[in-house]
Design a protein that fits this description.
Helix 5 (146-161) crosses helix 6 (174-187), helix 5 (146-161) crosses helix 12 (316-325) and helix 6 crosses helix 12 (316-325). The protein has helices at 5-15, 46-51, 59-71, 127-137, 146-161, 174-187, 205-216, 227-234, 240-260, 274-279, 286-291, 316-325, 330-333, 353-373, 425-438, and strands at residues 19-22, 39-41, 82-84, 92-95, 104-107, 112-115, 165-169, 191-197, 220-225, 265-269, 306-308, 381-395, 398-411, 419-420, 442-447. The protein is an alpha/beta fold and 460 residues long. 38% of the residues lie in helices and 18% in strands. The two termini are 51 Å apart. It has a five-stranded parallel beta sheet, sandwiched between helices. Strands 1-6-5-4 form a four-stranded mixed beta sheet, with no helix packed on it. Strands 12, 13, 14 and 15 form a four-stranded mixed beta sheet that branches. It is built from 15 helices and 15 strands. Bound molecules: xanthosine-5'-monophosphate. Xanthosine-5'-monophosphate (XMP) binds next to loops.
Amino acid sequence: AYENLSDISDRLLRALPPVLTVGHEEWDSPIVPLLENEMVKDEPGQAAVLDRLLDLLLTAVLKAWFGKKDTSSPEWWRYQGDRVVGLPPGFAATARTTNAPTVAFEDPERKIYALQFHPEVSHTLSGNRMLKNFLQVCGARGDWKMAAFIDEAVADIRRRVDGQGILCAISGGVDSSVMAALVERAVGEKLTAVFVDNGLLRQGEAARVVRSLRRGLGLNVVAVDARREFLAALDGIHDPEVKRRIIGRMFITVFERAAETVEGAAFLAQGTLYPDAIDTIPVKGPSATIKTHHNVGGLPEKLGFELVEPLRFLFKDEVRELGRALGLPAELLNRHPFPGPGLAVRVVGAVTWARLETLRQADAILIGELRAAGWYERVAQAFAVSLPVQSVGVMGDGRTYDFACALRAVTSVDGMTADYYPFTHEFLGETATRIINEVKGINRVTYDITSKPPGTIEWE
Ligand code: XMP
């Protein structure tokens, strides 16, 4: 049935508006049938070693094979496996590598452009410019502004909600704050935001979040103190995945209870972003399983509310831009991500209030030093981890037998891979000294220099 695939493909491409095809993997590009006789198989390892071009999903594998150095600077990532050596009629090559004579080609007449690498991955140099050039070919003017998005989203939310009550959960993080600010602009006091203090937050965080949302954003906030309940549910639990499940379930219970106190709410607004939205579509490959746990801390769709997800088509950087346009403070918009299960996944082993308090103090010293050095925004995430390890130390004239803590700071574009941050010895030394002197119960500080992979960002 597919004998004339290349014919069909040719006709399809002619009929379409301007086309940019990316990758040449068999399953996603209409250009592939035209290349039937032009593809040769790569020798094993050839594409990866000589061209240093690869698909994003393979970053993790590549890193494990070749170490940090060889993979941090590839300029193009070619799909490993097939090499295009010739051209279909009517096309001219526009880029080559040492190893493949045709990694980009085009027919400007028919407005068909083909790239055998991914301009959209952050490792591709000038990838954005390539996409921009293509959009110009399509006649796009590029004059869209965030203000236009706000107007559209506000109108859309008003239309859907139609004067009824709307609820949301807020964590103090970027996504839920921006979402709440946007919905508030649309429906004003019809929005009620529920904030759950699960006892697993950073030092001073609960009070700060509630204050900034109430005063700063003028939100209706229902603040729930559920610290005891969460702690009781986590009592004696060591397994990180069990901790996550307990916290996820507990959050839903507490939220539902709070929701019942809000009259007339028919809608639930959530800060789902585009990457989360596409993550819920099953995809082949390891990324599906790697990311499953990242949604802990969310609410299920079956709560009996109609969902409103105004950020569903935005990426993280666009959410920050939206936040700026809505007038949210930079301090909030530039915050490091914080996991839904909070400090429970940074207390290795059993979670107790005493360990949480100790961790909060050490963590606050690290973050304070980071801000004082002006480096907070250079790292993607920084935090302290409480270790269930006791060791001997000397303090004044006496011996101590206290706990160790680890400091972690990473740079990362998307959380899927990460490098440890190369702090100066001076910074590490001063921070460690402060922690040991000021935090009772910690007598040893280590710095985690593991990249992801093979490590993860969190310890649990
Ligand atoms: P890992 O530790 O897997 O983390 O390298 C990658 C990113 O995800 C965050 N993370 C979580 N976020 N619920 C969340 O909401 C979770 O259970 C969870 N576990 C990890 C982590 O902070 C990092 O940004």
